[in-house]
Protein: Peroxisomal bifunctional enzyme
Organism: Astyanax mexicanus
Amino acid sequence: MKCIGLVTLHKLGLYNSAVRKGITETVSRALNDTQVKAVVLCGENGQFCGGADIKEFAKPMSGPALVPMIHAIEAGEKPVVAAIEGIALGGGLELALGCHYRVAHAKGIINLYFEALKLGIVDKVTDGNVVDAAMEMALSVIGRPLSPRRLSTLSTPPLANLDGVFEAAMAQVKRRSRGAMAPVACVKAVRAAAELPYSQGMKRELELMGTLMSSGQAKALQYCFFAQRAVGKWSLPNGAQWNNSRPRDIRTAGVIGLGTMGRGIVVSLVKAGISVVAVEMEEKQLDLGRKEVTGILERDAKRRGVTAPLHLISFALSLQSLRGVDLVIEAVFEDMELKKRVFADLSRVCNQNTMLCTNTSGLDVDQIASVTDRPPLVVGMHFFAPAHVMKLLEVVCGPRSSAEAVATAMSLGKRMGKVSVAVGNCPGFVGNRMLKSYMDESVFLLEEGASPEQVDQALEEFGFALGIFKVGDLSGLDVGWRVRKSSGLIGPDVNPTFPSRVRQGRRYCPLPDLLCEQGRWGQKTGRGWYLYDSAGGRVARPDPEIQRFLQDYRLRYGIPSRRISEQEVVERCVFALANEGFRVLEDGMAAGPEDIDMVYVFGYGWPRHRGGPMFHAAQVGLPRVLQRLEFYYRENPDIPHLQPSTLLRRLVGAGSPPIQQWKQYIRSTHSQL
């Protein structure tokens, strides 16, 4: 009788030392059992293998190594068939390729987005039971020679213009990776596979892997992986937290305002399967919003080969249309009085149990809630533009926000595919509060002799996708201009011909205001810190007019221009950012450094391979950060945000404990989280 050995991968499809040990021992027994003629390798709970268990990365290697285990399977004298269901990622795909045959379910994901069957990655695709199909194949191949099925023995087909192909690939990867080591190593590993015999290619891959695994970037990426999951475990001072507070089931939602942000929020809700009523006050804006939302959803559906869920959206010109929804998200212009009027109207229109959320980027959520009849049901849901693309959602917990409201906003964010981070209610919350120091330093550097392109280049080489001045042009410089006006930094008491460089008791740079007065609002006007081919253009070019503008400004104020190094640009911008992050922690506006770092990784383009501003400070060394901030503060005593924070000094005094222990040193008496 011909017997098929069935080996099942456990632990939710992840391979760790226990799984590797189990596979090695079970396959070995099957290969040595004379009754067993073939082996089928399958996963558990509908998943083949999700790759490595990241929890093991920071630990010493234990149990059988992955590659020798795969080699042993491939070298066996009995056919081994992989039954691939669900996912086969990373090492899971390597394991499947080590088998002699591969059968996959039609709905499985093989990690690589091409036609696996056509390319020979799998031998058969089935709509039925993948294990049954694999066992059937195993029976059919018993006795066939296995040499042609061992992929490691096959030669790589020659590639025309190999040098040119890999040089182009490397140039593209370096341009996109912004200093990340892993993408560059991947190109090197693929080139080794194309040029070298299998054993030498594997040796080269092992060398590259060793360099990566011991790097600071590996530690940063592992930190991000766990931090992303940790931030969902929120808590409030009253004891309410993620695992004891039940969220509401949101089936219908309203969105007020169909500007760029509102459209993205509508799309995000609809893609999550939620029925949406979108409201605008003017018919022209409503029609424009309808056209844009419909277009985004239709393009997305076409790309994914599905039908656009347009039946889930309705558009209206009156708040009365929101009477029966479960939750409303306001996304009107960033003006406190306007938002108060909207929320007062919503209190009269909506059911008493409807949750009211504001998308404000930094206004007082409790002040907005104060005009309603339900402050406990008011929270901030601060999305980031474009909202259907950006992953971050700051859930702003007002002092009167209920646990149910916070739980619902966090849950809804997760349902929309966001990384939801609970933050406290202070001006700018976490992200924009910290961003102010970063932006202030960038314009102070312009005053002192730098150019926009010099600052941006330094920050992009650090790893940011876009430098701060390109970001400003993209977002619209007029937005910040209006915020500064509403905050009282710009007003009738400011001399229009010679605006003061001191406002509210601290150094102030009027350069952005002067730029906006010239109608240079960024990409939307074709001119900002950079020059564009036309209004709405995307390609930034240095503008000689900006150089003259800066020179005239320095002459007018008697500011000597000096040479500014790339190191100074990065340190003043990035360390000022982290320094404010320490103050955020001290004030209890973020639960921990992980929350701050995830805000910046997912909302502000912080390079993931640097972990986040707080992780980066720890990796550079807190004494070094303290020393450089002290130096820059001595040089610029009129810039308060360069003065090292109390928490930073406390941590350095405690011997710079690991970032996971920082919470022990935070002494906030008024924490909101």
In short: The CA atoms of residues 258 and 289 lie 5 Å apart. DSSP finds 25 helices and 17 strands in the chain.
